[in-house]
């Protein structure tokens, strides 16, 4: 056996070993999913300890934002309050969940550096911790959505099961993006600033404060904007409408490609992440 063949086989064995270890980490994280939930709950409680309203301060500020932007932009765009305020409310709340998972994902491994260096906990545990923490925050902010659906009568026509499916797609895709940001941020500490800037740009390029009809059908900003599809999969059924069929195909394909890429990066960097920290 020549040297090149030996190196090739060694490389393949090493790659297969890293993939196997990555799957072991993933399986172990599911076995300790309760720990991830407990850590997320502790994060929320600790953040608002001593506060009167706790995380509902975020809900209150978001509700004021919805009212202010909804009333102002409805007047500027000459839109019906019945259609525009629920549209903006859902856009702000659900985009807030997406940006929360991705932005806070940058600090997933950095904040857990002491635990990662002193224990053998699965790294995926801390990814689920970030996702659960933002799911808890979203749970508080759903008060706004429920109020809007009831006040404007959309509860009569909404398709809740399809909206839940869309919400699942939202979390699945936001989770891999948050994990990819976590890995990159562990290595390069200026990544969080870049991610925050990208998300700030994305909110204005996504139909959150404006309606898609302003651009017309099949516009590139809508068709190739992943955040638009993530929002539309949840918002459309809640407003008694149907999201375009290709929206779900887009999100499913994005989830497969995104998680495949993220897992590949994770398996190659898994052993180095602790040293990056």
Describe this structure in words.
With 277 residues, this protein is mainly α. It has one domain (13-276). It is built from twelve helices and no strands. The protein has helices at residues 3-31, 33-47, 56-76, 81-105, 108-111, 113-118, 124-151, 160-187, 191-205, 220-223, 226-238, 245-276. Helix 7 (124-151) packs antiparallel against helix 8, helix 8 (160-187) runs parallel beside helix 12 and helix 11 crosses helix 12. The two termini are 40 Å apart. The mean pLDDT is 86.
Short description:
The chain is mainly alpha-helical.
Key structural traits:
single chain, mainly alpha
Total number of helices = 12
Class inferred from helices and paired strands: mainly alpha
Give the radius of gyration. Answer: 21 Å
Q: How much strand? A: under 5%
Morphology:
globular
Task: Compute the average pLDDT.
Answer: 86
Largest sheet: none
Element string (H = helix, E = strand): HHHHHHHHHHHH
The rounded distance between the terminal residues' Cα atoms is 40 Å
List segments where confidence is low: pLDDT < 50 over at least 5 consecutive residues: none
Number of distinct beta strands: 0
Q: How many domains make up the coordinates?
A: 1
Question: What's the SSE blueprint?
Answer:
Elements: H1 3-31, H2 33-47, H3 56-76, H4 81-105, H5 108-111, H6 113-118, H7 124-151, H8 160-187, H9 191-205, H10 220-223, H11 226-238, H12 245-276
Helix pairs in contact: 1-12, 2-7, 3-4, 3-7, 4-7, 4-8, 4-9, 4-11, 7-8, 8-11, 8-12, 11-12
